[in-house]
Amino acid sequence: MLYKHIDTIDFSSCETVIKNRLYYHLLNNKYYKVWEEGTVLWDRKIGDLFLLATGLGFYEGLAEFKTLISDNGTCVGYVMDGCECPMKDTGGIITGEILRHKNKHDFSVFKNASEQDEKYQRFFNTLKNRAQETGFFYYDLVQSNVADLGARYGIIDLESVAHIRDLFKIPQYHLDNLPADYLEFLRRLYNERIGIWNNGINMKLIEQAWSMSTGGIGFKPYYSVVINGRYFEGERPWETRWAQFNRAIDWNGIKILDLGTCMGVVPAYLLKFRNINSATAIDLNAHHIEATKVVRKAFRIPEEKMKIIPIDLDNSDYEEILGYDFDVIFCLSFFRWIKNKERLLKYLSNFENIIFEAHDLDGDVVSTFKDIGFQAHKVLGESRIGRNTVKKRTMYYFSKTLLDNLLILR
Question: Residue 216: which pLDDT band, with cuts at 50, 70 and 90?
């Protein structure tokens, strides 16, 4: 993403200016959105949410923009290319023909659209997928914010995003204007990710765990997470990973081993919400081990149910220490950090089921596991690397049994 300082933009050459914050340059075919000082959009929190949604890739397939406008280090807007002539009667400027109604206050853009329409389905499938992947959703579906781009629909007014934790803090008139199926999806997502966590978790200890440096950029926590409706900042959204595997297997009674547990979130969530039998979490980093212990205590998990072992897989007899009594092994973005990879693969070959997130093995990971006896596999999903909008990591489920006999639920 490129940054352009606001002082370098010649707004005086723009043919159309709306409310001192929307600018359209016909000659350069550009649309500028600048957040007006003194309005709620100038609020740093709104800007941070917009940047976080951008970094997580929320706008992929929904809006095309590559440039942000900055002012003294603060993001104050963005630039969109390829805009058509603005629709002055509705006060909107978009990349394409606007979806208009005679009454510009009629916000039900898709009121008369057929749900069987392919373009309609693609648009809302993209909105739902981005919400599932990032935890953010778009709520301002007014007619002047939706563009018909020919092959697909797109959006403008890009800062009208919120985290799913704030779904019911959005003004009611916005929620009333969302299509029923989209709103129902958001409510289910809210209940899945927010409502479920009201299970006696000690929030003071969660605060303590998320105050520790556990591998995130800038000595921050590795995971961002929402617990009991509260957002805790981190490099990678936990909800994305959880959504990929939490219902992929019949977890009841399963014993897991989590290699490179980081904060212990994988075993803690599976023990708390999926009724696994037991978990062993290992890591080399002392900060990670301490954070994992705090998370275990915060989730009120008995020590005998969730063992935490500090161990160096390159300098220990870990095969004897850990043993082989596990049903599923987690190896999420961990393999890269092991020097003796052949030894670890030999150890993994003793188990029936592996959930593996590729780090730098994407091209060879399937053949690598096939060579050690895992004949069946399923791609559970992809997640972005921190706030990088391009690179992604793939999560696989490997099994030694045939696909028809896998533990997969969906």
Answer: confident
d(CA 409, CA 262): 27
Number of domains composing the chain: 2
**What is the pLDDT of the chain when averaged over all its residues?**
79
Decide if 406 contacts 399 (C-beta within 8 A). yes
- Residue 370: domain span: 241-405
Tally of residues, the chain: 410
Residues 393 and 301 in one domain: yes
Whether 63 is covered by a domain: the verdict is: yes
For the entire predicted model, the pTM comes to 0.62
Give the confidence band of 1 by pLDDT, cuts at 50, 70, 90.
low
> What is the distance, to the nearest Å, from the Cα of residue 245 to the centroid of all Cα atoms in its chain?
14
Task: Give mean pLDDT, residues 360-372.
Answer: 80
CA distance 212 to 321: 28
Query: Contact 298/206 with Cβ under 8 angstroms?
Result: yes
In a shared domain, residues 278 and 165: no
